[in-house]
Amino acid sequence: MENEIINKVASSGLTEFNLEDFYPKGERAVFDLKDFLFQGLVLKEKDFREALKTFDWSNFQNKYVAVLCSADAIVPSWAFMLAAVHLEPYAKRVVFGNPETLETILFNDALSKLDIEKFRGEKIIIKGCSKYPVPESAYVEITRLLRPVAKSIMYGEACSTVPLYKTKD
Fold this sequence. Notes:
Layout: E1 14-17, E2 28-32, H1 45-54, E3 64-68, H2 77-87, E4 93-96, H3 99-112, E5 123-127, H4 136-146, E6 152-157, E7 160-166
Parallel strand pairs: 1-5, 2-3, 3-4, 5-6
Antiparallel strand pairs: 6-7
Helix pairs in contact: 1-2, 3-4
């Protein structure tokens, strides 16, 4: 069969690592304390506590939630903590920070459960394109995790990679 198509990537011994596989599926939401500030500047404890008691938390059911205050106001730490107390029974995960921080933490959580040993001695390509938003921090984290065990680490696609690391044989 002289016209046989040969998949050179499959026979190359390369292991593709796709961060997209670690994307936690689910809706993301932001809980912004600015909506609870008096005149957009000050957090009044009594009013804040009362507002949280009457707030409809079911809007955050099974969502990943970032808690922040987008107003230029001084907000005490306990206010974010109190919001987390109310969110925790509803949300899949609650973090302090913006949506980018939320994605970083979600990916770090997922990658921390990965059995890195199964990549020992492998030539790894960390896939670059993704249909899901993968934060740059996830690429750095997986590189950090794989570097002690991998024979080599590349970035991109099998047809066009950027070499990042190779052991000295």
